[in-house]
Amino acid sequence: MPAPPIDARSLTARTVSVTPCGDDGFVLRIRPDVGQAPLRAARFFMLRREDRLSPAIPRPFSIYRQVGEDLEFLIKNMGTGTAALSQCTPGTRLRLIGPLGNGWPALDGEGAPWVMLAGGIGSAPFFMGIEQALAGMDGRKPVQRESITYLYGAARRGLLYDIEAFRRLGVRVEACTDDGSAGFKGNVLQLLEDLWKRGEVPRQVRLLACGPERMLEAVENLARARNLQCWLSLETLMGCGVGICNGCPVPTVESGPMGAWPNAKCCVEGPVFSVDDVTLAGAH
Amino acid sequence: MARLAVHLPPLALRNPILSASGTYGHAAEMQHMADIRAIGGLVSKTVTRLPRHGNPAPRICETEAGFLNSIGLENKGLDYYVRELLPQMAEQDTCVITNIGAERVEDFVELAARLSDEPAVDALEVNLSCPNVQEGKLPFATDARMAARVIEEVKRATKKPIFAKLSPNVSRISEMAIAVEAAGADAITAVNTVLGMQVNWRTGKPGLHTVQGGYSGTAIKPIALRCAWECARSVSIPIIGCGGITTAHDVLEFMVVGCTAVQIGTASFGDPGLVGRLAGEVEALLDSAGIDDVNALIGTLRTPQATPRATRPHEGQQAPCASKT
Ligand SMILES: Cc1cc2nc3c(=O)[nH]c(=O)nc-3n(C[C@H](O)[C@H](O)[C@H](O)COP(=O)(O)OP(=O)(O)OC[C@H]3O[C@@H](n4cnc5c(N)ncnc54)[C@H](O)[C@@H]3O)c2cc1C
Ligand SMILES: Cc1cc2nc3c(=O)[nH]c(=O)nc-3n(C[C@H](O)[C@H](O)[C@H](O)COP(=O)(O)O)c2cc1C
Ligand code: FES
Questions:
Q1: What is the CATH number of the domain that holds A25?
Q2: Is residue B28 part of a domain?
């Protein structure tokens, strides 16, 4: 039975600050009562307020940045859970379950360059992902700045959260919007095709993606069609985050390494999966 | 230091706090989250004879004050449970209760017979009440004769004590309780989830793929409390209360209405450490109230005496009607 990571705990924390970000998002900075070791990018926590203003079931959020003892989450207002978090003030007590999930695979500088595709709030797990790739992960060769292309798409300019922070990391950042209000007009897949056509990105790349399900499905199809290595960070609904409620199934690829059972648990077997393992597009 | 040990004969629990089926995995997963030795017992996720893949997503959705699920009893079946999960549960220093589920009496019997020989199993909980199979038709949950037949046959197939887990989705839960007691159940777990649903009026889409599902969490506590009370006053076997229990106060409320033990379900999703802390919190409450044994509270509900004369309905006046208050 896949178990939650051995470093995961049920913790409390206090709010340090809530800073608006983009049209409908905010950065929630918190200080856990127990210090956290350096965390791998794309791992996540389940989060809720300790007072009765949050729904009883915590919500999953990727770790955005780790700053000293503090953790930062980049959060988009979606409904009741995120609204309650957005109304925290300094000192508001929080329940925190984690760190959970696997995080990105080792992003190394040995093979093909990396192309990271983020859609909307799906950018959250990439900030530390890029930092860690540049620093070297798991003792592997660090990735060179020019071997990372970060493609960030959203419906409009105001939903490209904190894009300047990504630019400051020194990797190539390209934006796109559905309405053309910032960067390329179109989605991240069209942007990638465009860069390929213009020869600005090599044909052989390794893909990482996080964003809305429709986008991830399209990325999966692209990876299969071009035979590219590809990992997706998935955002299913989650009840527990620790593998006990069975509320977060993701279809597995029947002929793949996880195919013995028709669904994987996003929370404990993911949230990052290779497209060899799982499929949003219904691959067999 | 109040005494917390309780009896579900023949089982002795170190305290009345159990984890509820399907909400605490098989506990080995949770050993970093909670002190398992501080839990009175662990109830497994429902095990079925053959593997079940469960229902399509979305399987969960949160509503105003509770949680809807329609997992559909996803599990890898009895062989896998006995081989992989039971040994992990057995390693935990607390009682192990295996919850079994089936859609046919024969399958219940086979499950019970196989588990009868497993020394790690301290008791079987018979899930008569899952709302997420057979399109919520709940055959064993709502028909007292069918429920009694399952319990009778399971009893015959095993030497283990058996708990009958009842559904709140019935008109008179006392009839179900009386039937399973007569059929040989050693205890009753009251209750499983309440049937419910959610819909988004803009999209017209239901919150769950199966449309309806099981409602749990704080919202159902008053329903569960009433069910537990009704069972407790109808039978003489012990009652295990379940439904919406989140705090030590909740635990003691269920004991006052007649429960010997309780199970913690959905509250573990909000804080997986809770079930390991509750016994300590219950002890502190009892100490502060000057009660030295938790058993002293069981069934101490003080029902109001006969209606005082002054408020009795006069002739010609209408009797107070509960539904109009
Ligand atoms: C591993 C993981 C990491 C995540 N990281 C982040 C993050 O860093 N920042 C961030 O803002 N969000 C993140 N999410 C998504 C976040 O958990 C949801 O947006 C949040 O749970 C919504 O809660 P709510 O109570 O505000 O909305 P609800 O009131 O629960 O829902 C409002 C509406 O949003 C829909 N919805 C809810 N959850 C999701 C979802 N996961 N995907 C698509 N639609 C959804 C509901 O169906 C409903 O229509 C992550 C999710 C996962 C699984
Ligand atoms: C996600 C989830 C899965 C559940 N799975 C089972 C199960 O497999 N077998 C069972 O008997 N009850 C199952 N239940 C019901 C609980 O054990 C419990 O009876 C119910 O949730 C009411 O208690 P609560 O309000 O404390 O959660 C499940 C409940 C939830 C929320
Ligand atoms: S969220 Fe509960 S099993 Fe994954």
A1: 2.40.30.10
A2: yes
For chain B, 325 residues long, the average pLDDT of each consecutive 10-residue run is 95 97 90 93 96 95 90 94 95 95 94 96 93 65 93 97 97 97 98 95 96 95 98 98 98 98 97 96 98 97 72 48 44
Residue B95 domain boundaries: 6-324
For residue A15, which of A93, A67, A84 has the smallest C-alpha distance? A93
With beta carbons less than 8 A apart as the criterion, state whether B225 and B249 touch: no
> Residue B157 is part of a domain; what is its CATH number?
3.20.20.70
CA of B136 to the centre of ligand 1 (A): 28
- What ipTM was reported for this prediction? 0.92
> Which of A66, A100, A134 lies at the terminal end of a domain, its last residue?
A100
CA dihedral in degrees (A263, A252, B77, B181; nearest 10)? 10
Taking the CA of residue A267 as reference, the ligand 1 atom at the shortest distance is 1
Catalytic, out of B61, B95, B130, B242: B130
**What is the residue with the minimal CA distance to atom 14 of ligand 1?**
A61
pTM equals 0.94
ω into residue A90 within 30 of 0, thus cis? no
Residue of A78, A123, A213, A266 with the most ligand 1 atoms within 8 Å of its CB, for mutation: A78
The residue range of the domain holding A92 is 9-100
> Under DSSP, is residue A65 helix (H, G, I), strand (E, B) or coil?
strand
In a domain, B1, yes or no: no
Q: Does residue B130 carry a catalytic annotation?
A: yes
Q: CB–CB of B59 and A261 under 8 A?
A: no
